[in-house]
Amino acid sequence: MESVLNYLSQNQSRFVEELCHYVRFRSVSAQPQHRGDMRACADWLVKHCRAIGLDARACPTEGNPIVIAKTLRKKSSAGRRHFLVYGHYDVQPPEPFELWKTPPFEPTIRGRSLFGRGASDNKGQNLAHLKAIEAYLKTGTEFPCDLTFVIEGEEEVGSKSLAGFLRKHRAELACDAVVISDTGMPSPKHPALTYALRGIAAFEISLRGPSRDLHSGIFGGSVENPAMALARLLAKVHDDKGHIAIPHFYDGVAPLTKYERKQMARVPFNREAYRKLLGVPALHGEHGFTPEEQRTARPTFEINGLTSGYQGEGSKTIVPAWARAKITTRLVPGQQPEKIIKHVRAFLEKNCPPTVKMELEAGHGAEAYLVSPTSDDAQAALRALKQAFGDEPVLLREGGSIPIVNQFKKILGVDTLLLGMALPDDNAHSPNEKFDLDIFARGQRLSALLWRELASQK
Ligand code: BES
Ligand code: ZN
């Protein structure tokens, strides 16, 4: 193990250069013009995995390729434990470009951070795991278990192709557990094991009014303005205590237990520092819950995009023909995306005025994830976290979603260990995304130590 850890520390500057290379690919899954960049990024990953000594291939799907890379199994490996490492090489759209200090796909190091879209979500973490394996293979250290990397290109758009892929390759991917480093840690001094993620239900709603944009002086006042109607409609979703007023929305949501609330309150939290980090004049959320509970253990209804009328420079006096909103609700255990969409649709249809035509188009969805942090594998992961970071790890519930974790459970029958490396100020999905290079190095150590701990279970 000593030589593995030495190899890691001796090669950090090359690893950082390789991460820069990886971040340069414009692998934006939401934007069709980047289909070629997605393929190029997948091909680069395959080459990189092969150079490390893994058996790697890019598997085409209807969407973006899925990269599979495995440690070569020796005959003697029969009976050894097998783990999957899941990650994603796709990234969120980088817009708005003007808010980036340096361009999103020209990775730049400032201080101990590497700035670039995808550095922290999730390319840095994929590479940290790959570098740990490289260290074993290049130092001739026996790798204690079998490992298969599954790195996909559609996580940020709902992982549409991956569930089918898991079903098709169920035998090849049969394993003891999945490891994912696509979650966070509260600070560099708080390594974390995440035991719950929120689910999600996405949809778009559009309201159509007049058959074309109208002169707002000639006609305004005598017809409904679809943008106003949409604003009124969406304003009905929350009551003045921040609860969601949609009937049946909370059906099945278990109240937080006293024990859990007490545990969550143990993670240090400073309201003012949090307010400043987010740049808001004041915090806002559902009454009766702490910000930590609101953002991890309570469901939400969010407008992600709102479009209507004239968006160019200057003014244009029209009643727009239509208004549209992109919406996601975050879900907690007990809620199912299909049912939520049904209740949302019924509520919006009931409250939509007859002066506009409403259409609701359902998008991707995933249930929340909750796993026991007391299993033997979770305990092994906690030991590796402690050794790699030097501090006692914390247990977290988190608010983000990783849609495929439930499919790993349903299709492969296994739990997922969520070992995050992203810091709260990494700016995931925001301008100026960055990855902390010290966490990158410690993440590699974590991975190296983890396989030994996990392999020795059972
Ligand atoms: N890395 C995030 C998920 C995440 C972030 C989990 C922080 C826990 C803490 C992932 O890349 C992501 O952004 N997922 C999307 C999924 C969605 C598009 C279906 C999300 O949560 O918005
Ligand atoms: Zn993301």
Notable features of this structure?
single chain; 458 residues; alpha+beta; Aminopeptidase; Alpha-Beta Plaits; nine-stranded mixed sheet; four-stranded antiparallel sheet; 14 helices; binds ligand BES; binds zinc ion
Question: How many individual helices?
Answer: 14
Summed over residues and divided by their number, the pLDDT gives a mean of 96
Please give the oligomerization state of what you see. Answer: single chain
Return the CATH class of the largest domain: Alpha Beta
Using only CA atoms, what is the Rg?
A: 23 Å
Q: Any idea of the CATH topology of the largest domain?
A: Aminopeptidase
Helicity level, as a percent range?
A: 25-40%
Please tell me what the overall shape is. Answer: globular
Task: Describe the sheet with the most strands.
Answer: 9 strands, mixed
Ligands and ions found: ligand BES, zinc ion
Strand content: 15-25%
Supply the CATH superfamily name of the largest domain.
Answer: Zn peptidases
- At CATH level 2, the architecture of the largest domain is 3-Layer(aba) Sandwich
Distance between the termini: 21 Å
The structure class reads alpha+beta
